[in-house]
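Quick review question:
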């Protein structure tokens, strides 16, 4: 059964630099264990693993990119010379690893500018659901609905056509960004991501200061059961969702719908619509 709650959120903004805001843990209440320092070359990766379900954080995302692979494992990829610290908090124990990145390996510049963040996941045996892992260590259980998402794209272009605006082309980077943002919206329904960064950073890389991001605008919603309901709500909104739908500076689009499993076994749809110029 799909429980229906309804809420919308939107934003359109010019790209600006945003610093990562990470909540500081209370050192007095947590035990800290320092892990062995790892040294890697720019463009190379190292995996970190702890016992238990961890909340992961990185201190300097310009030096390295962290991808949470599971609740207990994360991959760190070097971007440029420098040092960053990875923290994995399991209960009252905090594990800290120091990552040193050496120089700029051949091809590292291209790797760091093209490797846009993606959503890590693990399928759940015997279920249509998967576990999706955010870069904060949070876990979301659910499944994507591509038919619902594709219907939103079609209805968006139909609405644009009826309002004299050009069609939006599907974009792989925007679609991947939308999948990540749909999962993040289930944890924090806001245009500020759970890691404290602005929404658009999901479509770019820290090494480039997110100037390479393809994301220029975003509509969010949750609780609607189909594309028609979602579009009707955005069109009727007084918050500016309609303006995003017909903005003539947008030329591309990516949409994702994630049915998120609730504690009582029902599902709630979280919808992310990302626009690019």
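Suggested answer, residue by residue:
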């Amino acid at each position: 059964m799909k429980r229906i709650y309804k809420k919308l959120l939107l934003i359109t903004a010019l790209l600006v630099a945003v610093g990562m805001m990470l909540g500081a843990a209370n050192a007095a209440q947590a035990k800290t264990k320092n892990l062995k320092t790892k040294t890697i070359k720019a463009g190379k990766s190292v995996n970190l693993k702890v016992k238990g379900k961890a909340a992961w954080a990185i201190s300097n995302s310009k030096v390295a990119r962290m991808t949470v692979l599971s609740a207990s494992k994360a991959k760190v990829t070097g971007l440029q010379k420098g040092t960053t610290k990875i923290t994995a908090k399991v209960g009252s124990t905090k594990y800290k690893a120091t990552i040193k990145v050496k120089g700029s390996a051949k091809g590292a510049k291209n790797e760091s500018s093209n490797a846009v963040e993606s959503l890590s996941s693990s399928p759940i045996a015997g279920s249509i659901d998967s576990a999706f892992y955010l870069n904060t260590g949070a876990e979301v259980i659910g499944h994507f609905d591509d038919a619902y998402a594709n219907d939103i794209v079609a209805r968006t272009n139909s609405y644009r056509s009826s309002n004299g605006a050009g069609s939006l082309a599907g974009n792989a980077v925007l679609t991947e960004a939308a999948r990540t943002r749909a999962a993040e919206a289930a944890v924090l329904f806001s245009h500020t991501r759970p890691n404290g960064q602005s929404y658009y950073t999901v479509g770019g890389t820290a090494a480039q200061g997110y100037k390479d991001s393809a994301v220029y605008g975003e509509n969010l919603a949750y609780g609607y059961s189909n594309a028609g309901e979602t579009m009707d709500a955005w069109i009727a909104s007084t918050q500016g969702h309609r303006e995003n739908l017909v903005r003539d500076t947008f030329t591309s689009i990516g949409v994702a719908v994630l049915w998120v499993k609730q504690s009582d076994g029902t599902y709630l749809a979280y919808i992310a619509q990302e626009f690019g110029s």
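Why it works: The first strand starts at residue 7 and ends at 12. The mean pLDDT is 84.
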